[in-house]
Batch of 2 targets.
Target 1
Amino acid sequence: MTFKEQILVGIPNELPPHKPFDHNSNHAPKRKEILTKEEKKLAIHNALRYFDSKHHPVLAPEFAEELKKYGRVYMHRFRPDYKIHARPIEEYPHQSKQAAAIMMMAQNNLDDAVAQHPHELITYGGNGAVFQNWAQYLLTMQYLANMTDEQTLHMYSGHPMGLFPSGKEAPRVVVTNGMMIPNYSQPDDWEKFNALGVTQYGQMTAGSFMYIGPQGIVHGTTITLLNAGRKVSKNGEGLEGKLFVTAGLGGMSGAQPKAGNIAGCVSVTAEVNPFAANKRHEQGWVDEIIDDIDLLVERVRAAKATKEVVSIAYQGNVVDVWEKFDQENIYIDLGSDQTSLHNPWAGGYYPVGMSFEEANEMMANEPDKFKEAVQETLRKHADAVNRHAAKGTYFFDYGNAFLLEASRAGADIMADNGLDFKYPSYVQDIMGPMCFDYGFGPFRWVCASGKPEDLAKTDSIASEVLEEIMKASPTEIQQQMADNIQWIKAAGENKMVVGSQARILYADAEGRIKIAEAFNKAIAKGEVGPIVLGRDHHDVSGTDSPYRETSNIYDGSRFTADMAIHNVIGDSFRGATWVSIHNGGGVGWGEVINGGFGMLLDGTSEADKRLKNMLLYDVNNGISRRSWARNDEAIFAIKREMERTPDLKVTLPNIADSNLIDELF
Ligand SMILES: NC(=O)c1ccc[n+]([C@@H]2O[C@H](COP(=O)([O-])OP(=O)(O)OC[C@H]3O[C@@H](n4cnc5c(N)ncnc54)[C@H](O)[C@@H]3O)[C@@H](O)[C@H]2O)c1
């Protein structure tokens, strides 16, 4: 059968052969046993819903075995034999070009070269799922292949509920992931309801089909590092010869060494999982791997002395690096961490003093002991960071819940006031005031033709547009514009494409709209094929997350999630091709609500209208909320936008004099 025919089959009538466990793939850790006997029965009932009852006698014991072995029912037998990757959209069977674009984006998230645990349908972050099982994948692809531009597919945490009649202007797909009744959002609720097969952790761009490999975060990490470098620069010098220490070479964290090289420093990234370290090394994301801590010390000393720009992976636990560099008096200029602490008990963070295998075994068989070991490691980790910070290291939380989990573990991480952490989140110090409040965020696009030449053309279109805009940009955003132009000019040379032909570029509303308009014109002229626009959920408006995206909101509203909900609703009727809203992503289940969109540009005048209408709202929703929270930069940005867009009328805050209020209490 051809690829197209296989997609159209959906869930096959006859059972495909049983698939042996593939030891060459990077698999998700066994999830902890959480279901009662009755709940296990329910999980198998739930799984069997996808199949004709004639297959139940074979599948019931097989799924029960998967549940026992892996803690989840993935339905491995149904994983397709064809290669899953982003194909040019014409290769997908389709009635709707928009649906074909979504198929391409979903397949990219499951590509072996892109996904962290492809067989378990996990794209990144250890638990960032595209689907819960292979039946959902097969059924979704079949629906997408058959749907028209007058229907909408509604998806509940990976499960395609069905096609509903809608209209041309409606989104083709509406995605929700992990949406829970608020009181059922504790980490163990995820374990339980995911094991039952009724919800999933969609991360940000995994369950929303918008992941573009580690490139997606290289740009943000580069901006963060460059600006962190500006903070520690005493005489205006750059990052030459300066040392950045961090951890994690996984889905997103794998971007750190690349960003270190682009920013021009020496970087050491610790990674406990040899699979992950080797994958990033083979893909050219990190220059060298060292697994001996003494050799690491020597290598770092030499690199610092000669101001070499180099990225080094240390294969081992990051706590060993922080402690050893303290003993050896190696000065760390910048420090952070990108282990998956949003998921601390299920493989996101590995305890020190034991091998990777020992830790995995303890996690599955002695979860309480594992939890203790993680918390003890966090305390040691924080102590070592504190010793370096006392010598002058600038440490920042990089949005992985390090400070939050360290505080919960009782680590010495709280500020003197007992309320704040000792260290800032990168959004409080850098990303919030310098980017989000002005509307700059991780805009992205994917060339649906799959042609690298199309990507190169879009890079030059985007760079021309930004250079033109910069001529009239106010001084407040000149630095951002310059950094982004420099980024897009070097993007091709930095060879960051893994999977689909995608590009990320921080831009504000004006930049996003003008770039998208220029793309749509180029498509109409036949200069490039269709293009999918999107963004990370980690953006100006898409995410309410009190310890990350909205950590620089100080009016008390950072614990609300109205902004993210308005955003997804607002985008959906302004022309998005698909929209998504998730509980969990980045910092953890129950800790964040985040949403995003995808939009296909096909060169038509309808696409031109949609992009203007939707992108304007997609950015300015967040700026208006940030402005209402009295953030100066956002007040500046929204006033400027209202001058440009007469139909935009936003409520502005009046600023009260603190002296007037302070004397009242
Ligand atoms: N700041 C941002 O913009 C941003 C963006 C995306 C993700 N994140 C967050 O960053 C974290 C990492 O994301 P990811 O996709 O790379 O996750 P991941 O799970 O793919 O990678 C994390 C890596 O850390 C390694 N690790 C765990 N404990 C370790 C230890 N003690 N020492 C050394 N290595 C260790 C793991 O083996 C894993 O490979 C997540 O919490 C994610 O939510 C932040």
Target 2
Amino acid sequence: MTDLLDGVRDHYRATGLTERLKTALKTFGPEELRLTPPQLATLDQFHTRGLAATTELGRLAGITADMSVLDVGSGIGGPARFLAATYGCQVTGVDLSEPFVDAARYLTERTGQSELVSFDTASALELPFDDGHFDLVLLQHVAMNISDRTRLYREIRRVLKSGGKFATFDVVLKSGDPHYPVPWARTPATSFLLTAAATREVIEPAGFRALAWQDDSDSANAWFAQLRASGPPPSPNLGVVMGPDFVQLTANLARNLTEGRLGILTAVFEAASSRT
Ligand SMILES: C[S@@+](CC[C@H](N)C(=O)[O-])C[C@H]1O[C@@H](n2cnc3c(N)ncnc32)[C@H](O)[C@@H]1O
């Protein structure tokens, strides 16, 4: 298990990330200038369809200001900051990658949201929270890095209140082997994809009932087609976070989606009253 997590940590190692971000963000003005979450969206929404996907997931999950939200695998914190700014809810993020957590905290200071949004380094398989702590758990483009899905979804159920919600937006296996490298794994060694049906078969027995279930592969394909048509990527972008090969990693994801090897799943579940 530790070996698998180390492989994933290596992939998201991002040495010197906060310093690189400081340099990249000079394009918006001096360090003391407050930034807004949408300004950072080309850089901090580390998943297919960027800000549009986070907006849709927040709407589907029915977020309200009084909710306490946990973002599992929070990356550099874009979804957490955007949802807190949009709904006024408290958001906690956890991520395996220390440089990502450090960067997430820095960016949250830059948007002036440190009172509502916080981040900790932790594994999704061992969440550092009491049972029944959160109203909503989000999981965006993280499950494909996790081999022990039974433990992942049970851990999410454990930290949710009964009747709380779990909203997931992830890459799923469709047909055939994916082309690597992809944004979450440079080789198959750290990629643990399941089909949409197999994902549901693990989530529901962990103590969940489906409220929404969508195949978003077509909108993902349309988004990638629009990106290609609009020329060079906007700056700053996720290349600052993942390095210069990010263009190739993203192109492979787009190819896997177009060829029907991979798909995109959006789903929202309600936590059942008794846990398994
Ligand atoms: C593709 S990024 C998505 C980040 C964020 N959810 C977003 O959409 O912007 C995947 C993230 O999952 C994190 N991750 C992968 N495996 C994890 C685990 N076992 N526990 C916690 N975080 C994990 C990685 O460190 C990385 O930040």
